[in-house]
Amino acid sequence: LHLRPLEELTGRVAVFTAGATDVAHLDAEVVHVSTSLADRSRLRAELAAVTADTYLVEVKAAAIDVVAEHALAAGKRVVFAANDVIGEGLDEALLALAPAEALL
C-alpha cells in the first residue's frame, strides 16, 4: 500500500496509520509516525507527546474520534490519506482472476 495525502502537506507532519507504512515518499518534514489507530489509549499518549502542524491520517479506527479531534482542538491541520494499492504486475494479475464476461 502507498499512503497518498489528499491535500498538500505543510510544516511538521505527524502520520497516523493503522499499520506499518513507508513515509519516505512524502514531500514533508515527518516528525512522528504512529501505527496505533486501533489502540485509543496508546494513541492519546502519543498525541500528548507530538508537536506537529499537520496530522496526516488514514480514515480508519480512531482517526476521527481521537486524532482529528485532538488536532483540530489544538488549531492544527488534518489531512486525510488514501491507500493506493501498488505492485508490479498487480493489475494484470487481478484481471486474470476476473471472469471473461466481467471484462466486456
Describe this structure in words.
With 104 residues, this protein is an alpha/beta fold. It has one domain (2-103). It has helices at residues 40-49, 64-73, 90-97; strands spanning 2-5, 12-16, 29-34, 54-58, 77-84. The protein has a 5-stranded mixed sheet with strand order 1-5-4-2-3.
Query: How many domains would you count in the coordinates?
Result: 1
Q: Tell me what portion of residues adopts beta-strand conformation.
A: 25-35%
> What is the strand arrangement across the widest sheet?
1-5-4-2-3
Which parts are unreliable, with pLDDT below 50 for 5 consecutive residues or more?
none
Distance linking N and C termini: 28 Å
**Fraction of residues in helix:** 25-40%
The Rg value, from CA coordinates, equals 17 Å
Mean pLDDT reading:
89
Q: How many beta-strand elements?
A: 5
Shape: elongated
Helical stretch tally: 3
Main sheet properties: 5 strands, mixed
Determine the structural class based on helices, strands and strand pairing. Answer: alpha/beta
Order of helices and strands: EEEHEHEH
